[in-house]
Structure formats: C-alpha cells, structure tokens
Amino acid sequence: MIVRRMWVAALLAVIAGVGALAVLAFRPPAPVADAAAGEFAAGRAEQHLAAIAQRPHPIGSADNARVREHIADTARGFGAEVTVESDDVVQPWRDVVRVATAHNVVARVPGTDPSVSGGKALMLVAHYDSVPTGPGAADDGAAVAAMLETLRVLRTADVRNDVVFLFTDGEEFGTLGAEAYVRRHGVDGLGAVLNWEARGSGGPVWMFQTGADNGPLVEAFGASSSRPIANSMASEVYRRMPNYSDFTVFLNAGARGLNSAFIDDVRDYHSPYDDLERLDRGSLQHHGETMVGLVRALGDRDLRAGDGNAVYFDLFSRVLVHYPTWLAVVLAVLTVAGLALGVRSGRLRLRAVFAVAGVAVGAVVVAGALSFGLWALVTAVRPGLAFLALSEPYERGWFVAGFLAVGLAVLFAAVRVVRRWSSAEVIAGVLALTAVLLVATTVAAPGVGFLFQWTLLLGLPALWMPRLAFLPPLVAAAIFPPLVGTLMVALGMPLSAVGVVFALLAGVLLMPLLSSLPRPGTVSAGVAVVAVALLAVGTVRFGFDPDEPRPNSLIYLLDTGTGRADWLSADPAPDPWTSRVLGENPERVTLTDVYPMLDDPLMRAAAPSLALPAPTATVVEATEGDVRTVRFRVTPTASAWRTQVTLSDRRACRFGEVDLPGATLELYGPTSREITCDLDPGTPLEVAVADHWIGLPAEASSLVGPRPADTMPVQSGNRPYDAALVRATFRL
Ligand SMILES: [Zn+2]
To answer: 295 and 215 share a domain?
Structure first.
C-alpha cells in the first residue's frame, strides 16, 4: 500500500510538472532589439510606435491625421504603393446612426508572380485609430508598428503574391474603416485576411478566430509561427460572444482569414495606461514574428487552394497539432467504439460506472456553481469591482488561485464518494463521461472535441491495465492549464466559473489516481479553507492607488439655449475627486437624450454656466410643396471631436444620397456636414446639436481640480467618460 501511494504521489508530481511546463511556456518570445535586415525586430517597430502612441488619436481627431501621415510616409519610404482612401460612412449602430469620414491607409507591395493565386492578394489588417481615453500603444498601435516593420522585412525578399497592408480608421467606433474598405473593394481580390488586435497590454499573441475553410491557413500558421498559440475551441467560443473587430466585417463579406491578439493585462485596455511604458515588448515581437512567418508561408502559395476546416491546438506553445474535421469525426467514432469494447470486456458493474460518471458531472456542476456564487458574494462586498473594465481586479491572481482551489476542494470531495467502487470502475466512469463529452462536442462544436479526444484515446489502455490510469490526466496536463488560464482572462472574473468548469473536466480524470490516497475528505476540507482564505485576501486587498487607479468619469454638460449646466458621472457613487462637484448625494437621472445608448442612471449636480463655444445648425435651402424639404448645415466648433444631432418629427433624412435610419446622429470630426430632411408641410424641424469634447476643458477642470493620480478615465462599452458636452437647439 505504501509503495503504491508513493508511486501515485510520484505520478501526480509528474502530471503537475507537465501542467506547470505548459503554463510557463505560454508567454511571448523575448523582444529582439536589432536583428538582421531580413528578420523582425521589436526594437525597430518600437520607433514607429513611439510616434503613433503619443496621445489618443480617435477617428476624426487631429492626432488621428498625424498618425495616418506617419504610417503613409513610412510605408512609402519602404517602397510600397500607398494610397489614402477617404470614404464617408453611414452606419446604424443600435440607437444611433454614425456618420464619419474614414481614412484608410492602403500600402500595396506588388508580388513577383501574382498569377499564382489568380491575382488574389494576401492582406494584413490593423486599425490605427485609438479610443479617446488612451494613446493606444497596444490597441492597436503594436499591430500597426509591427505591420510597418513587417513591410520593411518583406521588401528584403519579395514574395509571389501581392501583399496589401491595410491600416484602418474608426475600428473603435463601429469598424467604420473596414466597412468602407469592403464597400469600395469587396473581398473577391483577397486570398486571405490576417487581422491583428490587442485587448490589454501584454502576454503572448494567440490566434483566436478563423473564417471558413481555415485548413490551409491553420497549417501555414502552425508551420511558420515561432510560437503558434491557438486552439479551435477559442474560435467556437468567440463566435458565440458579442465581440467584434475589423475581422468581423471581412468575415461577414465572405473572406477567409485568421484573427490574432494579445489579451493579458486587460486593466490597461482603453485607458491612459495603454501606453508605450506599459506595453509588453515581447507581445510586439510576437505580433511581428507571427506576421513575418505568415507572410513568408502564404506569400508564395496559391491562396485559393484547399477547403475544409481544421481542429487544432498547441502543445507547450511550440507545436500546433492540426487535422481536418472529418478526421476528427472518424477518430471520435473509433475511440468511442474502443471504450465500449473495453467496458464490455472488463468485469465491471455498469451501475457503478454510471455512478462514477454521475459523481464527476456533479463535481463539475458544483464547482462551477460555487465559483459563480462566490464571485457574486465578492462583488456584493466590493461593489467597486463592477466598475473595472470587464470587472477584472488588479490583483486577479488571488481570485484565480481561489477559484481553482474551490475546484480542487470539490474534486477531493468527489474522490471521497467514488472510493467505494473499484479502480477499474472509476477509470471506466471518468472515461465514459469523457466519451459523452467527445460525442456532444463533435456534433455541436467540432472545434472543441480535441479536449476529450486525446485524453480518452490514450486512456483506453487503462481499461485493460488500470496501472495506466495516469495517462489521461497526463495528456490533460499538457492541454488544459494554459487553456483554462486563457479562458479566465478572456471571459474575466465574473465568468471565472467557466474556467473552473473546464479545469474540473480535466480534474475528474485524476479521480482514479486520487482515490488511492488517504483521507480525501480531510484534504477537501483543508483545500476549501485555503480557497476561502485566498478569495478573502483578494477581496480585502482590493483597493485603488496610483499603480492601480480607479476608473471614474466626470462630464460637464452645458445647454447654451437655457444656460443650464450640470456635472454628470456614470460611476456607481461619488469618489473623493468627483464628490468635490457632485457632492455626497447627487440626484440620479436617466439621460437618453444625451446618452441614447445608456439605460443606467447617471449622477447629476448643478454646475456653473461657462462661456464655451457652441455648434450651430443653419438652413442652406428650404422648399415647400407636398413635402417641406430642409437642407441644413451642422457646424461643430473646432474643439469638438464628435457631434450628436437629434432630429424631431420628420418623414425622412439623408446624408448625401444615403438615408439616415434614425433620429440620433453621431458625426465624427469637427467637419461641417449637410443633412437634408423631409417634413410635413408647414412643420418646423427641431434640431439639437451637441459637441462632445475629449476630456474636460480647462475652464471646467479648474472647477474640480486636477484628476488625482489614483484615478483614470476609461472607455468601456457605452459607459460615458470625461468630456464636455455643449448643446444648442435650433428650429429650422
Ligand atoms: Zn482594437
């Protein structure tokens, strides 16, 4: 018995070691300061980034034009054919209609023999605009800089296909540049689209989304990337999430391609800390190595070749395993048949096998439910957590460890229950559950099947030789840990339960080994205490300081018609800074006329009326007949970044030739624009025009004092951020 226990302990140590190795390997490569001319160097890309990420540069802003010129000049300097395509875009977006001029930079490197793909080009895409609240070093400056450096590398050894580097505008406010590109060119001329993103300021780049017929592209990615981090489950998960990027626009138009991003350190996302200082240089290097690898791998081949999808996953961030979906189905059928054979040939009580499987399911469900409930408890104690981007606490490690410990405690409790059955029955039980999951995923989401395919296949021999029960958890240790970690980052702490569920799906494979250890009940109780302690420490330590600033917002709203001025904030409660003007107990109001996409109430308090310049709306031409038609001009002030126009009762409005399907318009950039509306005869058109300034103007910020170092503005979803809104109303 002692020998057996020591043997089990040694096996568990090996399994833990493999898991640790998988986690440690999940990191970007070391940044290269200055490589040979034909290689990618983050050090060189960083010089472009220093120019790009000086200040926020959202669509329509002066800094946006500055960044665009830098990109166009640099690409021209590297010998590409560069055009700046400027297109008006009208895009309905929930309750508003966005109107903007998107300026895309298109840099083309002609191939030596584009007929190899029938003239179809390989395209790399990144957006050069940022949000108004941050300089966008990671999102998406790192990709833009890496693309410029990749363009330079490409010119040292041309490839056969045309390669197009597309730097889009306006991704952050509705993928406007990508829409403009697809409307102008379509996607027929594109063999493959490789999109590059960031959500956070560090970590390895993982290829998390593909289009249809991804087989050849996945194969090229696996063969060419220095660290090919990807799995086909991510694509299945992402497809079911409401997220979008430029890649979505190309996919919807029917293009093939891959989408890659780094997503660690999400706390910096869309904040002033998305800057050059915080950016992980390894992520920049990883972006570039992957780009250069893919351009070389795809540059000379027929991009039209091949169809069908692949199932794929990486091992230790170094090797990409991939095979066609049809093969995954065949493998699944054979493996499940093998399991049936093994269960039949063993002297097993089927009831016991089902009971073990049932206990395993129970463990997965209980661990998920407990994690979900515990997070709800944590946010009840600390409501401030809900206001962090994606509710992601700064010291998330305490919570990740805590939730994984919850899972471990539940696992040991389950082990205590299954000990009453023979080890052969326990093995058969967990493999039976794995088989059910394999069948279910192969039918519903084939990309997920690999999670269960390999643990089950390599576990089959254990049905005949229980001593081999260590094989399934050993395989799982190589596959699951980085995947669970990434799920917890991608979904955030509010959905950490999903990560715990996947951890337990792998964890239950340990039950045959663990059931030979003494006192699992005591171990379970001990681990539960540790879990609660870890979560408690994370909860107690939660707070804000200059390194971990509090996201908050303050908006100055002025109505120049009435002279009324207000302070507004979307925060849950006043903090030491905002309470200087909001007081301790401001009124709460829903202002859908000011923020049409925001249902949550805002805090409001009276503010002194400042002499700020207001936008105007003036009639250019009005005709009266069966219909009254008013053509009018909206002119923002030079300080405006965006101008909101709200139209009263009207039959229809147009911008140029395009109908405006909504009453609230968002015009981007301080550009004067003409709008035409049809009305019933004799009816005036009421037009409310509101300039939106980026940040508080000096006159307003002097009233509240400078932003404390332990706070920051963040753009997150529809939540308002620091701005001055200057409103004027007109009857035309
Ligand atoms: Zn982005």
So the answer is: yes
* 321 is a domain residue: no
**CA 136 – ligand 1 centroid, Å:** 8
pLDDT 10s digits, 382-434: 887 877 777 788 889 999 999 999 999 999 999 999 999 999 999 999 999 99
140 alpha carbon to ligand 1 midpoint, in Å? Answer: 5
Whole-angstrom distance, CA of residue 24 vs CA of residue 316: 8
d(CA 194, ligand 1 centre) in Å: 14
Same domain, yes or no: 451 and 508:
yes
- Which of 487, 507, 541 is the C-terminal boundary of a domain? 541
Rounded Cα–Cα distance for residues 172 and 91 (Å): 13
Burial profile 632-653: b = 16 or more Cβ within 10 angstroms, e = fewer: bebbbeebbbbbbbbbbebeeb
Q: Is 196 found in the same domain as 69?
A: yes
* 592 domain residue, yes or no: yes
- From ligand 1's centre to the CA of 128, what distance in Å? 9
Ligand 1 centroid – CA 32 distance (Å): 24
Please give the distance, rounded to the nearest whole angstrom, from the Cα atom of residue 227 to the centre of ligand 1: 22
What is the rounded CA–CA span in Å between residue 86 and residue 509? 57
CATH assignment at residue 252: 3.40.630.10
Residue 1 confidence class, pLDDT cut points 50, 70, 90: low
pLDDT one-digit tens code per residue, 670-721: 899 999 999 999 899 999 999 999 999 999 999 999 999 899 998 888 888 9
**Domain count of the chain?**
3
- Measure 249 CA to ligand 1 centroid, in angstroms: 14
Question: Looking at residue 572, what is its pLDDT?
Answer: 86
* Distance from residue 248's CA to the centre of ligand 1 (Å): 12
pLDDT at 76 over 80: yes
For the segment 24-61, what is each residue's pLDDT rounded down to a tens digit? 999 999 999 988 889 999 999 999 999 999 999 999 99
Q: What is the span of the domain harbouring residue 673?
A: 550-732
370 Cα–ligand 1 center, Å: 34
**Same domain, yes or no: 220 and 199:** yes
pLDDT of residue 36: 87
* Domain annotation covers residue 338: yes
Q: How far is the CA of 196 from the centre of ligand 1 (A)?
A: 8
For residue 26, the CA-to-ligand 1 centroid distance in Å is 22
**Token digits of residue 686:** 């009421």
Q: Residue 605: is it exposed, middle or buried by C-beta count within 10 angstroms (0-12/13-18/19+)?
A: middle
> How far is it, in rounded angstroms, from Cα 723 to Cα 568?
10
How far is the centre of ligand 1, averaged over its atoms, from the C-alpha of 58 (Å)? 11
Instruction: Note whether residue 96 is domain-resident.
Output: no
Do 399 and 531 sit in the same domain of this protein? yes
Residue 610: exposure state from Cβ atoms within 10 A (0-12, 13-18, ≥19): middle
The residue among 691, 647, 667 whose CA lies nearest residue 101 is 667
Note residues around ion ligand 1 (Cβ under 5 angstroms): 139-140, 197
**What pLDDT does residue 665 have?**
93
CA 3 – ligand 1 centroid, Å: 56
